RNA sequence: GGUCCUGUGGUGUAGGGGUUAACAUGCCAGUCUGUCACACUGGAGAUCGCGGGUCCAAAUCCCGUCGGGACCGCCA
């Protein structure tokens, strides 16, 4: 007999079925026992009267512990007076398939969510048993699916670039060094060079969803030393605006998918609706961004060539107020704030952009410099050793399409979507300067 | 990397020189005619992160150490 998931129980009223799940709660009264059983799709009340026929089951349940797993056969009834979903399951057999220890290290059902976040991460497998956390990873799955649908329709190829590198990939971030049969190698902190290689290979458009590693001792709510980066790169573009068009399209596709699939649960568990953000994402130049923040909010960031956390938040607020958009592109950053491979425009500014979502940077993108002489010149300006980049420069020697691309931080997006305090809560298993377990 | 904060039963907190170390929740046992955040009664559970110092007396004050967090910087 096949296990019926909790979400589907209403299709089986008055039929003999089998259910399985974790023991969520036990209420053992004088003449009746209630066991709330939970799987990832929902809960149901299992009701067992205390009588001669049920004696064996009664005995089992009286010593049952929370979070143990059970399988029961029986009949599901429509019972409007039961508060939990108006149904109840009356078993004819009840088996304990695994026994949980009595005392749990964290409060799994903690509806106030008060347990220390770090302790919850130590016991992540228990923490993840909640409906709330399940929904986060369901949303992640849907986001990736929506993006893939978009890319497939637009002739993208999925690539899997190597994560062990002989030369440090250049993205401004620090790299992890690793011993490799006596030689030093580096963990990829970006698929950047390989996406560009795919452009040189004539793959018109590519994407990759894969881990990247950054040796940055960053202690913030939105950094990790290992995270999943969504990268794409497209050919034959006229400017970085073509790259932004592409990103805007897949972001909207993602929100639409989320709205269609999980809006009810999202409302119930997070108390807000998916915002389709059905307006053009505003595109504000770096210079205008600085000017607007000064004029409207009387704030001046510390750095002239980049925007700081406060400025990100303020421009996010401005975009929401003025354009009703959670998203805002900030474009044409100064070269000082950007890597050497970003293409410069006639004003000496980069043909680049960041995408901010609810005041947090979720993307850096740009048109890439594909003309080898200029590319080398820019590398020299940044003080990079040309010898180590020889393999990269080779990509540009035999014809390469004008191209550009971006990296999208999926966890940062999810963090803001679900209003979590930290990226850790939307990462399956977080990796940071102080955490490499479990 | 810089600045600041924090460590007390399983969990979350209170207590800030002398307490039987308190409260909530969880756990165990019992009572309870169907509960639904069940209720009620009782019980177990803490060498107050670790080491040292001051003091008649330290969870409490001081020094050190270890763990953890927040914000900023760096980036996705």
In short:
The protein has 438 residues and is an alpha+beta fold. The chain has 11 helices and 16 strands. The chain has helices at residues 55-62, 117-122, 124-127, 131-153, 192-200, 240-270, 286-297, 309-323, 372-381, 390-394, 410-417, and strands spanning 16-28, 32-39, 42-49, 69-78, 87-98, 156-158, 164-165, 177-180, 183-187, 205-213, 226-235, 283-285, 327-331, 352-357, 360-367, 403-409.
Description:
The protein has 438 residues and is α+β, with helices and mostly antiparallel strands. The protein has 2 domains: 6-98, OB fold (Dihydrolipoamide Acetyltransferase, E2P), CATH 2.40.50; 131-426, BirA Bifunctional Protein, domain 2 (2-Layer Sandwich). The protein has 11 helices and 16 strands. It has helices spanning 55-62, 117-122, 124-127, 131-153, 192-200, 240-270, 286-297, 309-323, 372-381, 390-394, 410-417, and strands at 16-28, 32-39, 42-49, 69-78, 87-98, 156-158, 164-165, 177-180, 183-187, 205-213, 226-235, 283-285, 327-331, 352-357, 360-367, 403-409. The chain has an 8-stranded mixed sheet with strand order 6-10-11-16-15-14-13-12, sandwiched between helices. A hairpin with a 2-residue loop joins strand 8 and strand 9. Helix 4 runs antiparallel to helix 6 (240-270) and helix 7 (286-297) packs across helix 8 (309-323). The radius of gyration is 27 Å and the shape is elongated. The two termini are 35 Å apart. The model has no long low-confidence stretch (mean pLDDT 92). The chain binds one RNA strand of 76 nucleotides through strand 2, strand 3, helix 2, strand 11 and strand 15.
